[in-house]
Amino acid sequence: MEKKQRPNIFKRIFNFYYQGFRDMPRYGVQLWILILLKLFIMFAILKIFFFPDILETQFDSDEEKSKFVIEQLTKPNK
């Protein structure tokens, strides 16, 4: 009697989510589109306008940037 081999774990996980999204009702798809749109706005658009690249504006070379980062990471808390 041969033992039937199951697909690997990654393929099973992928199939689980693929079937779930494929069988999702229309409102579920619309909600996922809304979620992805909000994530895009939060991480792409807001970063461009509200979070400037501080290291790029304050330092000229990569060496100066790396020294500043190391100092900030190793500085003891007061």
UniProtKB/TrEMBL annotation:
<dbReference type="Pfam" id="PF14899">
    <property type="entry name" value="DUF4492"/>
</dbReference>
<protein>
    <recommendedName>
        <fullName>DUF4492 domain-containing protein</fullName>
    </recommendedName>
</protein>
<keyword id="KW-0472">Membrane</keyword>
<feature type="transmembrane region" description="Helical">
    <location>
        <begin position="31"/>
        <end position="51"/>
    </location>
</feature>
<keyword id="KW-0812">Transmembrane</keyword>
<keyword id="KW-1133">Transmembrane helix</keyword>
<dbReference type="InterPro" id="IPR027853">
    <property type="entry name" value="DUF4492"/>
</dbReference>
